[in-house]
Fold this sequence. Notes:
InterPro entries: AB_hydrolase_fold. By secondary structure, the protein is an alpha/beta fold. The chain has helices at about 15-30, 45-55, 75-80, 95-105, 120-125, 125-140, and strands at about 35-40, 60-65, 85-90, 110-115.
Amino acid sequence: MPGYGDSRPAEMVATAQGRVAFLDHVLQELGMRRPVLVSPSMSGRFALPFLLARGDRLAGFVPVAPVGTKDYAAEQYHRVQTPTLILYGDRDASLGPQALQSLRHLPRHHVAVVPDAGHACYLDKPEDFHQALLGFLRQLK
Length: 141
């Protein structure tokens, strides 16, 4: 993602609208139609505005303790009809529960808590993470 890790900052992603446009462009370039967007941690800055603006273009959404959930009101989340799996590790004492407080307003959500896992539950307990993710994907069919 522009501005994260070793990538250079990009002016186009300085705003939520710019991040939506960036992610929309990436998905179009990849030729993806109705993908399931998995959004761990910092990618929430891109995925959440995209979900709220263009959630109808997604088959599903899987936020994994994303940042930025408090930036949006419950009413905004209520309008989203994208099936969502809210996923986090039970040892994530900050972002996981914090994200749940906001994301629970999504009308079509389920919650999966990965036991004995921290913030990066996909690294701590990859089998449990993948089991929850695959279960969600199967029910989207």
